[in-house]
Design the sequence.
């Protein structure tokens, strides 16, 4: 993994999105706060992950970055320029540099176009290729995502889920983006295919210096792929920081609950249930004060009244909790959270044999 | 019933479909059994045949050609008349599916649905059935169960709908619960609640569970025994700690190596190369052979039978026991 440098590629400041939705009666309008005053930045070559329960605002945040949803408030600065204060053509040129890949690549691929046409289209549209150079560009992109040139003439339905995700990635790469918003790109895939796509995303990052906003609720993949992690709850970022800080010493009670809930592939390894009670409340009726207080095991009277602000919590993290310093330390990994020695040996033998058979295959 | 007699025993189960390209065997010669009070997890990638197999236990796969034996309390379910199956489904054998919407009626209240399920299987009065319905809803941890009786499915969150479905499955006090990916569509927080609930219910009722999942983490938490399926066959079956502490099939190891390591310290993942074979063009010999880094010549020719490696631990691999074979040196 490349370590990202310190310059900022993307800076998001106080971004909010409010939707107007029908209330109890059709003529009543209510405001749904999907994303609430979030700020973060992404450096070149960096992966920032957004995690949190369904409906917490991850996709809405991602859609604002790529221009599919207009923010209600806040600024998006890309390469130092404010995206909102630009003319349409300037915006179009900038937007090209931020691309989106989806969970369901199938839904986003026109079934009547060949894979070659699908990949060439965005490049032609943005004048990055002409009719003559398009074929070469398509071949190059197919190679980049691990597909073959001969795939260009086929249609999306002829491909498996993992291959379709590769097509989606090739299409995003066609316009030479610097940042890709990946919205649950591997959630619908089997673990073996998930691993193939995660490896692909990482190798593309190394080769092209891409940045990712990686949206996911799969914590183990997030831990594997991220440099930094932002945890969202009901539209707010409640904790953000370097991966190690978040996973090894989560400070916010919600981050802890998320980590504690993730199943571990070793019998007996997960801690005695610290299961979070109840569901996330509706964003139409967010609780007062700290929005997490109705489910928080550490809530006190103050939490009901006062909204906690994001404040520095050491090791580069920000936490929004009144009590993070007082509550007991959290042990993220149970002692048994490692494979048994025999399994570790077998995994090493498997990896070695897989590497050998790959190099055999590529040498002939 | 003596504890040694399995509650359900499946022998030589085959489930085939006619397709335009020919007949495919989605489940091909599968044997396993589950004892009372036991949780058997069935794990494998999508398309490996988990759902078809579990649905076929209740003869719920339309247009399938099913053969073999499914012995429930020693009686073959495949030989029973259709009306007898209707009694067993939702009665002595309960079901939970991934998508609650497919089994909950959108235009009927939760309460009415549970009451109906109870009265379908038992001769109890309306009041008694209602009381039982509230009781099972309460068991699943749904807040204010009495009020929830009057809710329609769409008024509930995903986690609550899943609880309502579990309540319905439990209302008739089943001896066996078949749960097909019951938490796959849920957030980890809600998943943890539902898994806790299933564990608790099993402990209290002594029911057996067949849990279908593709998540090895869920398997590790829930199962007593595990069957790993690949391309329509069981390739490994073992008690849960034996499977995780010493897997004996390369496919199982491949699944583990595809997952980010538990402590998050790996740099690259090792996926299983390639993809599942087309059921119409299965490879000769071992079905995993084209993707198997441990394959030897024999694997491309002869299909390995599912055989005992250690007591209770079976694997369908020519090279099992793996660690012994692989470290003996002199491969191929
Ligand atoms: N166009 C819209 N109109 C009204 N409400 C919306 C709209 N889009 C999203 N919302 C609401 O905004 C909130 C955040 O939604 P969003 O899709 O961003 O969540 P998410 O974190 O991506 O969830 P998931 O993990 O399920 O994908 C939800 O309450 C959702 O119902
Ligand atoms: N009605 C059907 N007709 C033909 N093939 C089917 C049918 N249902 C399932 N299959 C095939 O059977 C195999 C196993 O499917 P399934 O049991 O749903 O897998 P899993 O639940 O493990 O993901 C797949 O190849 C699938 O395409
Ligand atoms: S502010 Fe209070 S309610 Fe919110 S997370 Fe911290 S302790 Fe819990
Ligand atoms: S029989 Fe051969 S190909 Fe099949 S899993 Fe074992 S080693 Fe691999
Ligand atoms: Mg989303
Ligand atoms: Mg299935």
Sequence:
């Amino acid at each position: 993994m490349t370590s990202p440098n310190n310059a900022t590629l993307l800076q998001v400041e106080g971004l909010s999105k409010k939707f107007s939705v029908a209330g109890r009666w059709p003529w009543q309008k209510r405001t749904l706060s999907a994303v609430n005053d979030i700020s973060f930045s992404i450096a070149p070559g960096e992966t920032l992950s957004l995690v949190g329960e369904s409906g917490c605002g991850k996709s809405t945040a991602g859609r604002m970055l790529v221009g599919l949803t207009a923010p209600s408030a806040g600024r998006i600065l890309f390469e130092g320029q404010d995206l909102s204060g630009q003319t349409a053509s300037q915006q179009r040129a900038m937007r090209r540099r931020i691309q989106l890949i989806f969970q369901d690549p199938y839904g986003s691929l026109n079934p009547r176009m060949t894979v070659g046409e699908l990949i060439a289209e965005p490049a032609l549209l943005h004048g990055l290729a002409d009719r003559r150079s398009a074929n070469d560009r398509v071949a190059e992109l197919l190679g980049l995502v691990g597909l073959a040139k001969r795939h260009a003439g086929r249609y999306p339905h002829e491909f498996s889920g993992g291959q379709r995700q590769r097509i989606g990635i090739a299409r995003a790469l066609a316009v030479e983006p610097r940042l890709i918003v990946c919205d649950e790109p591997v959630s619908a895939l089997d673990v073996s295919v998930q691993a193939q796509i995660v490896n692909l995303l990482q190798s593309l990052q190394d080769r092209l210096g891409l940045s990712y906003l990686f949206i996911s609720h799969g914590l183990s993949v997030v831990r594997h792929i991220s440099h930094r992690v932002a945890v969202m709850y009901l539209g707010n970022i409640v904790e953000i920081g370097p991966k190690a800080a978040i996973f090894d010493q989560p400070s916010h009670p919600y981050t802890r609950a998320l980590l504690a809930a993730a199943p571990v592939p070793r019998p007996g390894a997960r801690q005695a249930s610290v299961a979070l009670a109840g569901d996330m409340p509706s964003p139409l009726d967010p609780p007062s004060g700290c929005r997490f207080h109705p489910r928080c095991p550490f809530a006190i009277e103050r939490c009901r009244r006062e909204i906690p602000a994001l404040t520095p919590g050491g090791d580069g993290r920000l936490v929004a909790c009144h009590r993070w310093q007082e509550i007991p330390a959290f042990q993220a990994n149970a002692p048994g959270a490692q494979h048994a020695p025999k399994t570790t040996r077998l995994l090493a033998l498997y990896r070695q044999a897989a590497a050998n058979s790959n190099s055999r295959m590529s040498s002939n | 019933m003596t504890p040694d007699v399995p509650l359900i025993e499946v022998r030589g189960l085959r489930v085939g479909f006619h397709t335009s390209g020919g007949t495919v065997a989605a489940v091909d010669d599968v044997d396993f059994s589950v004892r009372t009070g036991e949780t058997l997890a069935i794990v494998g990638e999508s398309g490996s045949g988990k759902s078809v197999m579990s649905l076929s236990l209740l003869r719920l796969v339309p247009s399938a050609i099913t053969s073999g034996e499914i012995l429930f309390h020693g009686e073959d379910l495949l030989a029973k008349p259709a009306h007898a199956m209707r009694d067993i489904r939702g009665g002595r054998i309960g079901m939970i599916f991934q998508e609650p919407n497919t089994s909950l009626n959108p235009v009927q209240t939760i309460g009415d649905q549970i009451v109906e399920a109870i009265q379908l299987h038992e001769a109890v009065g309306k009041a008694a059935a209602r009381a039982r319905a509230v009781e099972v809803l309460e068991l699943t941890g749904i807040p204010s169960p009495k009020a929830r009786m009057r809710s329609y499915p769409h008024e509930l969150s995903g986690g609550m709908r899943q609880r309502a479905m579990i309540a319905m499955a439990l209302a008739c006090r089943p001896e066996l619960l078949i749960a097909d990916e019951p938490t796959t569509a849920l957030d980890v927080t809600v998943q943890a609640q539902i898994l806790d609930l299933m564990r608790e219910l099993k402990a209290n009722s002594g029911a057996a569970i067949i849990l279908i999942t593709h998540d090895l983490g869920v398997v590790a938490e829930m199962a007593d025994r595990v069957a790993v399926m690949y391309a329509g066959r069981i390739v490994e079956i073992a008690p849960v700690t034996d499977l995780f502490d010493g897997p004996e099939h390369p496919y199982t190891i491949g699944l583990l190596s595809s997952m980010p390591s538990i402590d998050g310290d790996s740099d690259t993942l090792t996926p299983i190369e390639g993809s599942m074979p087309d059921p119409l063009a299965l490879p000769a010999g071992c079905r995993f052979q084209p993707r198997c880094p441990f394959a030897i010549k024999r694997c491309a020719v002869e299909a390995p039978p599912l055989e005992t490696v250690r007591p209770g631990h079976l694997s369908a691999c020519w090279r099992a026991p793996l660690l012994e074979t692989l470290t003996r040196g002199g491969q191929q």
